[in-house]
Amino acid sequence: MDNKYFEKMLSKMDKDLSAQGMSRREAMKLAGISGAGLFMGGATSASAEEEKIVKSNAKGKIVIVGGGLAGMSTAARLTLNLDNPDITVIEPQDLSVSYQPGQTLVGAGIWDEDDIAYERDNFVPNGVKVIKEKAILFNPQENKLTTDKGTVVSYDYLIIATGLQLDFERIKGLEEAGRAYSAGDNERLLKALGDDGICSIYTAKGATKTWEQMQKYIAQAKSGKKTKFVFTHPSTPIKCGGAPKKIMYLANARLKEEGARENAELTFYPNGGAMFGVPEYHDAILGQFKREGFKWHYRHNLIEVDKEKKIAVFDAKWQEKGPWDPVMKDFEVIPKHEKVRVPYDFLHVVPPQIAPREIAESDLGSAKGWVPVNKETLQHIRYENVFSLGDVAQVPMGKTGGSVRKQYKVLVDNLISLMKGKKLEAKYAGYTVCPLITDIGTVMLAEFDWTVKPTPSFPLDPTVERWVFWLMKVYALKPMTMYGMLSGRA
Amino acid sequence: MHLNFELVTYDEELDKFELDNNKYQIEINDEEAKTYELLKSSDMSLYNWLKESDFFKKYMKREVCQDSESKKFAISDINGTSFIRFYFFKVTSGDSHYEYFKKLFNIHDESEWQDREDVGEEILQHLSTKRKELILELG
Question: Cβ separation of B113 and A237 shorter than 8 Å?
Answer without folding.
Answer: yes
